[in-house]
Batch of 2 targets.
Target 1
Amino acid sequence: MSTLDMLMQRNTNFVQQHFIPDQSLMPILRTMVISCVDPRVDPAHLLGLAPGEAVVIRNIGGRITPDTLQTMGMLQTIAQIEGINPSGIFNLIVLHHTDCGITRLEEKPEILAPYFGIDDSGVAFKAISDPYAAVEYDVAALKAMGILPSMWMISGLVYDVHTGLVETVVSPDPVE
Ligand SMILES: [Zn+2]
């Protein structure tokens, strides 16, 4: 059986066991997760997310980059067009992890600077080698931007790929 055949078989199982028709675009848990593309750290697996429960944005490192912000802005516009009421608590979770592939780029500011939309000299402040410091940095950066609605609760988590445990590094706190 090819990999694709296997995946199609899994889809058949999904349709039979887990599929929920006619779900809203609005995530059931009023939650958005920003996390890494690493195959070991899918938030659906680590956090047990079911279909429709959370919006997930994934990039290398789960970092706040110009692309991340552009995606969040587009989502805001989609929500407005969809007529989704944005008021009320919304959870924004930044999820980083140990042994991230981005640490392999630590000595390559020429790659990381354009990724973050900054000068080479700014890369040193991005805590590339330390996911605990990086998640604190990114949560603080998001709060400082002043672009998120005041009722959003923002938190920073780190997943340990050696133990499977997720640790709360930055506790949920209102954006303001
Ligand atoms: Zn990673």
Target 2
Amino acid sequence: MDSVLVTGGAGYVGSHACKALAVAGWTPVVYDNLDTGHRDLARYGPFEPGDIGDRERLEAAIRRHRPLAVMHFAARSLIGSAVADPLATYRTNVAGTLTVLEAMRRLGVGMLVYSSSCAVYGHPATVPITEDAPLQPVNPYGWSKLAGERMIADAGAAYGPTWTALRYFNAAGADPEGEIGEDHRPESHLIPRALMAAASLIDCLEVYGGDYATPDGTCVRDYVHVSDLARWHVAALERLRNGGGSVAVNLGSGRGWSVREVVGAVEAVTGRTVPLVTLPRRPGDPPVLVADPARAAALLGGPARLPGLDRMIDTAWRWLQRRRV
Ligand SMILES: NC(=O)c1ccc[n+]([C@@H]2O[C@H](COP(=O)([O-])OP(=O)(O)OC[C@H]3O[C@@H](n4cnc5c(N)ncnc54)[C@H](O)[C@@H]3O)[C@@H](O)[C@H]2O)c1
């Protein structure tokens, strides 16, 4: 079986991509320093402990497994910590990505699928957001992801690897078979925090801003099931293997849900109350972020298969109960 080096494959999205790769007949080789990942989530192929900044270790792993491609998830992805300590985020997300690209070049790995983010768009002037919207991040995390995209595009033009930059909106849910799921510590994402509040694992859910120009005053975000994200990663890889050209693609559902709608859905799924506290807006939070999913549908095989918010919340709830309660 052909192998793929999956940096960050012990994390949330990366572990689901590994499962999808294994189901599709690839061998996912996880390369991860377990900074925010978990050893038990890397269960679909070999595990290589290591930091993406460690050139020798990374190259040794590539020499050992001879992957046809790299899927590059490893990153620091907390916006708050990127604002507080931008250089640490740039070291992992920019310098780390540079080391991955250099290793690929030196050892002749010809395809890359990269975890980018809707944070590259900053405050979009119009929604839904197409891939041609201006790229104008508003925080160091978004800049680090955009810098990664820029280096990848320039390396592709100069040395030939083909690539797909997948700009995720909000990954949500867990493996429907319950094998893997989200386990960020600390957890900052809305759905798991709302579930944690419902399960009394935290005192209450913080809602940042209740006075936005949205129907109920709270921010609207596009949630997409992590298993759909995973499937699209495999589709992106297979498209490159079949000669598809390098491209950036939004990964979202194409519809938005407000914070209050998410809380209502969490209460309906769990049958429990979510205690809330409404706090001031966070700087840099746009009111509405929703993807135009047309390019993903055209290039990566159809719309989301698990598009409903209830399904995302239900799979996440079952995972949280197994993992944390
Ligand atoms: N979760 C989302 O909604 C979302 C949205 C947009 C973009 N992204 C991007 O998707 C990717 C995966 O996000 P996630 O939510 O799965 O995060 P995660 O923290 O669960 O996974 C990141 C993984 O990378 C590993 N890692 C971090 N630094 C490393 C290093 N220097 N060397 C080796 N491994 C390292 C961590 O241990 C972890 O297993 C990230 O690049 C993130 O920026 C995520």
